[in-house]
Specification:
DNA polymerase, domain 1, 2 domains, six-stranded parallel beta sheet, binds 1,6-di-O-phosphono-beta-D-glucopyranose, binds magnesium ion
Length: 230
């Protein structure tokens, strides 16, 4: 199977064996629940946190998200206080995600994962979230993934490629045999830093470095970017 690159050249055809998916913004929109929980924290501390501010937290780790939030509020805290606030936000966030249902899977995702299974491709999740398994369990998608690499298994945040490289090695494939699907610029950079192919989910504006950008999986056929045979 071959990836048809944006700037397609015959010599660039690569044997693709695995697909690695980011979670938030690719499989499901959990950003809205992160926003509700961070907003509640900002309200409690006493400053305004907007939906636009929340864009800065997408794809970023929990600890880094809190640091950005506190920067926005102009607040400085000790490490101990920060840990307490991150735990508090996470407890609220977990309350939201425990109520999630399979209806929240983004359009076209199940059909796309089924195509991947039919074509015999390996699949993994590569997410910064420490709650990835809980979310996948709630939306009943665990069965579609051979490996779940999440924030509990890595120490370096995207754009470091650690999460995707660990996904590739767990699937026993080479980085160059993987396509990563990502909605955040840091995630696209992480895939490129890992010498992987990457398809951006969103707009060309911030994901232009990806090999290809699509708006989502609705009506997307694997053949759109995988050319079968030689
Ligand atoms: P948690 P992804 C990321 O998920 C989110 O985009 C980001 O907003 C969040 O801060 C991060 O997970 C950590 O999540 O607090 O659940 O550990 O896009 O990498 O799937
Ligand atoms: Mg994401």
């Amino acid at each position: 199977m071959y990836l048809l690159k944006k700037h397609y050249k015959k010599e660039e055809l690569v044997d693709i064996k695995a697909l690695i998916f980011d979670l938030d913004g690719v499989i499901v929109d959990t950003a809205k629940y992160h926003y509700l929980a961070w907003k509640r924290l900002a309200d409690e501390i006493g400053f305004f946190f907007s939906v636009e501010d929340n864009e800065r937290l997408k794809g970023v780790s929990r600890v880094r998200s809190l640091e950005i939030l506190l920067e926005i509020g102009g607040i400085q805290l000790s490490e101990e206080e920060k840990t307490k606030l991150a735990d508090k936000k996470n407890a609220w966030y977990v309350d939201y995600i425990l109520k999630m249902t399979p209806d929240e899977i983004l359009p076209g995702v199940i059909s796309f994962l089924e195509q991947a299974r039919q074509k015999g491709l390996k699949t993994a999740i590569g997410s910064a979230s420490k709650n990835a398994k809980t979310i996948l369990d709630r939306i009943d998608l665990l069965k579609y993934f051979d490996e779940i690499i999440d924030g509990n298994k890595v120490s370096k945040a995207k754009p470091d490629p650690e999460v995707f490289l660990l996904a590739a090695s767990s699937l026993r494939v080479k980085p160059s045999e993987c396509i990563v699907f990502e909605d955040a610029e840091a995630g696209v950079d992480a895939a490129l830093n890992g010498n992987m192919h990457v398809i951006g989910i969103g707009s060309e504006k911030n994901l232009g470095k990806a090999d290809l950008v699509i708006s989502g999986f609705q009506n997307v056929l694997l053949e759109t970017f995988l050319k079968l045979g030689h």
